[in-house]
Amino acid sequence: MIFGGTGFLGNEIKNLLSKRDYETQTVSVSNKKSDYRFDISDFKSFDKLPVNFFNIIINCASKGPDKDYLDSNNLNESFNVNIKGQQNICNWLKHQKTIKKIINCSTLSVISKPWKINLTEDFESYNHGDHVIYSSSKLFQELLLKTFCDKQSIDLIQIRFSALYGKGMKKNGIIWK
Predict the structure, then answer these.
(1) Which of 108, 116, 133, 136 has a CA-to-CA distance to 78 between 20 and 30 Å?
(2) What's the maximum distance between 2 C-alpha atoms anywhere in the chain?
């Protein structure tokens, strides 16, 4: 199951897995091509999913850094998707007996690398500046999921991309390749 499976990153992962003959299903808030359409910030929506069916969860669901960091709607949207949505995924997972692994794709920034500090994959860090709401909500998401998986003894892989290549960006570098 890929949460956010019709978004920028989730769609690429779905296509890659499909080419390798893995069966995938997706959850998306708005895309009609998704197998399940609902808002992950509404826990009752998880009733649409089958029980004890999935064995691997890939989380790509995210509210990106596309607005002013002082905008209160941006804060609410980031909280609802990146934090409350992750909490709801964890609460749903507590009742799933078939989950063997969770892969969390955490993107601290999806547009270039607009900060000067070094972000690494081996410890919790986040950037400063205009992406502060987004990056702090994603860090909180990572910590919430790690705590949950440790307590539930579920195998967790956290993949933290420090930058992804979106529309208009030059396709070069190690992540692209």
Answers:
(1) 116
(2) 45
d(CA 64, CA 170): 20
Alpha-carbon gap, residue 78 to 1, rounded angstroms: 22
* Token couple for 112: 């270039």
φ, ψ for residue 79 (rounded to 5)? -60, -50
Whole-structure pTM value: 0.83
Query: What's the CA gap between 110 and 127, in Å, rounded?
Result: 12
- For the residues 132-147, what does the mean pLDDT come to? 86
Per the CB < 8 A criterion, the answer to whether 137 and 79 are in contact is: yes
Rounded to whole angstroms, the Cα distance separating 114 from 2 reads 28
Cβ pair 54, 95 in contact under 8 A: no
Q: Which of 90, 91, 87, 88 is nearest to 102 (CA)?
A: 90
Cα–Cα nearest to 49, from 66, 60, 35, 61 = 35
| Residue 87 near residue 139 (C-beta atoms within 8 A) | no
Strand partners, 156: 102
Quick one: 89 exposed, middle or buried, by C-beta within 10 A (0-12, 13-18, 19+)? buried
How confident is residue 127, by pLDDT bands cut at 50, 70 and 90?
low
